[in-house]
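Revision sheet: structure tokens.
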Amino acid sequence: MTRIVFSKKGYAKYISHLDLTRCMARIIARAEIPIWYTQGFNPHPYMVFSAALPIGVCGENELMDIKLVNPPQYPAMLKAMNAAAPDGISFSGIYDSDREFKYIDKALYTLKVPKDIADDFEAFTLKDKIPAVKKTKSGETEIDLKTEMSLKKVFNNDEETVFEIIAPCGNERNISPVLLTSAFTESTAKRAVFSLTRTAFLDENGNIFR
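Predicted:
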């Protein structure tokens, strides 16, 4: 399997996962990548993504698997795909991998909070319990974000405070930090523009997943 590492930033963070899939198919076609197509009545390029990003969240080190029909020439592929990519999408690595995405357990995020509400946000995260409603295909479930994710302050200056968040991101459990920022806004009525970026995936041992 060929694994591709890419970033989704800028205006690209506002496109849905379905639109991202279509975008990647166009990039691969423009770059003339010899991708394998599925068989059957409606063939389509074989692409498998790691967990989808919520709209509005940036991604660094996002992962996509493809199959190739010819022996790979990874340096040339990387150059061609970056040349064919639109603004906001870029590629940083291509390599062989046989480790399935089902072994992803958590994700690491960077959350930038505007300075004027940083103290209020930090105080909010120190509560004993942070209830939130998670929507799923089967309905809605109330969860406690305090027990579901870990958060620590890693940097602050005159403009913003940066927090690092580790949250579930596996097949069985997937909780977005967007629930945390939404819970803060609903609880305090303080509105702000948060900047959230998923920076890495982790396995069950807390190691970076590749």
